[in-house]
From TrEMBL:
GO terms for cellular component: bacterial-type flagellum basal body, rod. PROSITE patterns: FLAGELLA_BB_ROD. It comes from the Bacteria. One of its GO terms (biological process) is bacterial-type flagellum-dependent swarming motility. This is Flagellar basal-body rod protein FlgF. Residues 5-35 form the Flagellar basal body rod protein N-terminal domain. Keywords: Bacterial flagellum, Cell projection, Cilium, Flagellum.
């Protein structure tokens, strides 16, 4: 009896983890450039001196769904969408370099460009800074130009360039902070960080949306909930059977 309970408990625990991943995907349906996290379950045989009549289950994260999201034409100069294999370099909270497809660039009061609070990296290194209060535009090659308040339009001048990098989907993996970084295998061949790629192009005034499909994610959430309920019913049934067996033994 206890073996059946342990097996069902393991399945219920992993189902809860899958629900957590699905909930995270649903929460990011409106996050620009978000890549849905994939989940999977795999069987783990119970090894021992007895017959292998049972298997346990464990969750695994095979990666992210790298399918591009739909383009949203915002007409905002600081919104950018990159070509399929392009990434924007940003500085993560721990100081390391991360990569994102989120092109919703913001300007802080001090003139620093950020994405979700992370400083945007310049082509020559360091965070991108623009003059305070200036009108900023971004060219297709990532060149940032600024026009100071009150200046004529013909005085606009380049002030920095975005660090645009190129990476295959298999070369990057998502970290706990949501930023993508090179895998260990990719670092062995390309170094700890990616170099700027002049061939990468972007489109200003456009945002790539999240690739999460809300209807499919909701259906998966409902299915996971039903799987969890099924495992809990198994645990309850096994517990009832054990109680009745103990009652029969006490009567004898």
């Amino acid at each position: 009896m206890d073996h059946a309970i342990y097996t069902a408990m393991g399945a219920a625990s992993q189902t809860m983890e899958m629900q957590g991943v699905t909930a995270s995907n649903l929460a990011n349906t409106s996050t620009p450039g978000f890549r849905a996290q994939l989940t999977a379950l795999r069987a783990v045989p119970v090894n021992g001196e007895t017959f292998q009549t049972r298997t346990l289950v464990t969750g695994s994260t095979p990666g992210a769904d790298m399918t591009p999201g739909q383009l949203d034409y915002t007409a905002r100069p600081l919104d950018v969408a990159l070509q399929q294999d392009g990434w924007l370099a940003v500085q993560a909270a721990d100081g390391s370099e991360g990569y994102t497809r989120n092109g919703n660039i913001q300007v802080t009061p001090t003139g620093q460009l950020t994405i979700q609070g992370n400083p945007v990296m310049a082509d020559g290194g360091g965070p991108v800074m623009v003059p305070e209060g200036s009108e900023v535009t971004i060219a297709s090659d990532g060149t940032i130009s600024a026009l100071n308040p009150g200046d004529p339009a013909n005085t606009i001048s380049p002030v920095a360039k975005l660090k645009l990098v190129k990476a295959e989907n298999t070369e990057v993996t998502r970290g706990d902070d949501g930023m993508f970084r090179l895998t260990a295998a990719a670092q062995a061949t390309r170094g700890p960080t990616l170099q700027s790629d002049p061939s990468i192009r972007l489109q200003s005034g456009v945002l790539e949306g999240s690739n999460v499909k809300p209807v499919a994610a909701m259906a998966e959430m409902i299915a996971s909930s039903r799987r969890f309920e099924m495992q809990m019913k198994v645990i309850s049934s096994v517990d009832d059977n054990a109680s009745k067996a103990n009652q029969l033994l006490s009567l004898s």
